[in-house]
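Q: Structure tokens for this one, please.
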Amino acid sequence: MNLELQRFKADFFKALAHPLRIRILELLSEGDKNVNEIQAIIGSEGSAVSQQLAILRNKNIVFGTKDGNKVTYSLRDPMIVELLTVARHIFNNHLIDTISMLDRFNEDNNEF
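A: Here is the predicted structure, written as tokens:
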């Protein structure tokens, strides 16, 4: 059972392991959007956006609702918004640590 859960988590994070997929999720965290809206905001080709949406859809991270010719995408779980927020905080903490280390390095070099 533990191994199944670990595989699920690994597959889930693999699905998030692409900058365009992260950007799509950030956009969908602001509200539902169709492919054309996502393309326009990102400035990427439709095929690239559609390909990344297919991966997110296959991993049950997003879902699409068809309305005529348009498919509107939504986050399957609102907790994705919190996950993205936590990831941003982790990145910021890492960045702050790196900046602090660089400041200490520069202070040490100025002493000589």
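A few notes: The helical segments are 2-16, 19-29, 35-42, 46-58, 79-110. Strands lie at 33-34, 62-67, 70-75.
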